[in-house]
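Kindly inspect the following:
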Amino acid sequence: MSTITSLISSGGGSAPLPYQQIVLGDSKTWTVPSTGKIKVVVTGGGGQGGRSRSDNVNTPNAATGGGAGGYSEKIIDVTAGETFTVTIGAAGNAGSVIGNFGSAGGNGGTSSFVTATASTTVNMVANGGSGGGFLVNNRFTPLAGGAGGTASGGDNNYTGGTGGEVTKDGYSSEYCGFATGGGAVSIYGGVYSGGMVESKNGGMRGRATGGAGVGGAGGDTLGNGAGALAATAGGSATKSAEALTANISTDTYGGGTNGAPYTTNLLNQLDMQGPGGNWRAGTGTSLIAGSGGGGGGGGGGASSYSSSGTMSIRGGNAGSFGGGGACSLYASSAPNAGLSRNGAGGMGGGGSGAFCGPDNIPSAYGNWQAGGSGICIILYI
């Protein structure tokens, strides 16, 4: 497993080896424990993905992923006893209540590392990503993903990746439920977004894209696809996921290596070389789930159609700093919405969009997972 230094960029060069690492997940006044040179990293909170629902399967609907928080890094000379004010941006979370036909995702909060009593003036700011959007019964309006947060005050400042967009080109009014993955934090300087959905002429039922990884975008779904499902994998630390042009009519797993399941115990697991999560699409009455991203990988998308109300669906959760994978479920009767769940963002990453319908009980509309919370990492170098 790589050390913490392997995930922190240095403007293109290799990071020096740290002899002490401090990770702050809560806002506080931080007192410098010893004199030396530190490298500080802050990320904003990730935006939550949008949610869309419908009482009628014969309407076009869309929900997009949230944007990732901004990223700032800076090398600072410090003296023991000096203090800095650390603010950690909250994960984007609009709460558990879904509006009548959906809701936009909550925006991520702003993180900062600012001089309190130190001799060196520091004002590092990493803004949160914006929440994803939603549309109901709208055939022609494109829908952007949540914007990535900006950053300032560091030696290197990077804007977060956006949630995937949905383009619309006069597609058929029926069976269209589209959802896109969340954006990833730009810890290496490259900006990577959740996979997009391109729709063209045809009732495509459900399409769900993967979230971005820290080194690659989520896979896109492209082109026509009457009566078909489609889902894509999450991006990894090293490359973007493949776009999908094939249409799926049977239970199918994506190719490649599954990402490891997401865990919340990430502070000691900051190896960013994990794969993106795998996708899954299919029909029937069982759970259809994309897999989680490993390391800095994005979550995989999941798409399904069911002829009964017993189906449930889950987008893949992201690894550290990655974007969640989207989910889209159409059913001919009210689905088991309590088991429907979008993919959560990793630290600072955007949560995914999600569609579920028909669903006549908004309060039962599944688990609306958030984006990832911000973080501050301090390295003595």
User: Anything to note?
Assistant: Residues 1-16, 255-271, 360-364 have pLDDT under 50 and may be disordered. The first strand starts at residue 20 and ends at 24. The radius of gyration is 20 Å.
